[in-house]
Amino acid sequence: MSYPFDMNLLWYVLVGILFTGYAILDGFDLGVGMHLLSVQKDLDRRILLNAIGPVWDGNEVWLVVGGGALFAAFPNVYATAFSGFYLPFMLLLVALIFRAVAIEFRSKEESPRWRRGWDVSFCIASYIIAGLMGVALGNVVLGVPIAPDGEYAGAFFNLLNPYALICGGTAIALFRMHGAIYLVMKTDGDLNTVAQKWVKSGIIGFGVAYGMLSIATFVQAPWMAERLRANPWAILLPLGAFLSIANIPREMSRGQTMRAFLSSAGAMAGMLALVGAGLFPNLLPSSTGAERSLTAYNSSASLATLNLMTTITIIGLPFVLTYTIAIYTVFRGKVDPNHLHY
Prior knowledge:
By secondary structure, this protein is mostly helical. It has twelve helices and two strands; from the N terminus they run αααααααααααββα. It has one domain (about 5-330).
């Protein structure tokens, strides 16, 4: 089956949507993990883990689907990215494994040392995953050295440049705030009061990080602003992201936690959409010459493959969305301390 629209543009947008979905959904449980060691009582830690327990593994499916879509739609980008980011991707994989093992194993024994060891693993892994996501995105914005044969031509420490580290710090601050808002929705009593304090400090931390990132982007990646000036409609993206960020403390002060959470999700979506619009059609820009950049057009799979993937998506996506909505509906509401499974 063929479709009467630009398939390359469609899959550029779809891959972006999948990774944005992952950032929003797994972002809050990463944020919860970052706060795990901030409480001392074992009961409070179990409540935090049970707040994300029914949904965390489903959230990570979005990363798997996003990676699979990137591999199928833009195989050259997938190959070059993994050749350049091999060590960070392996570290990401190890951190994902440790989070999964930690949340499942930590309550299997009563030993405080056993439980604290897994709690530390879960917390550190959450920081690592969030930081790596930000560092990877920062390097994509700046561009990476790509050789004429399409291989990554830099070294591992080239990835740890100041701009990428600022992106990593911003991602950590954003997820910490996002996770704290989620915990306010899921907890009661003293733990809820503590979570509200985490939200306040999280808003300040993210505000500072976001300001630094904005300045760094204007200095280190001025072409992003040039792309936006060339497309006046794109001004809606930074405006929407800014308004979403500004609405978070407003809704929290009014006790509208769900609206604050949706505003936090909207801020993520707006920021990532801004990056996508600023980079288009590039998926992996080259710092060694624009002609070596991998775009949605020179690195895509065949049109037949894109058409087939689109058909599969049209059929399968409603099932994925229905499942996701059902899970969050079933497990809505506060965590019951008398029924803890993790």
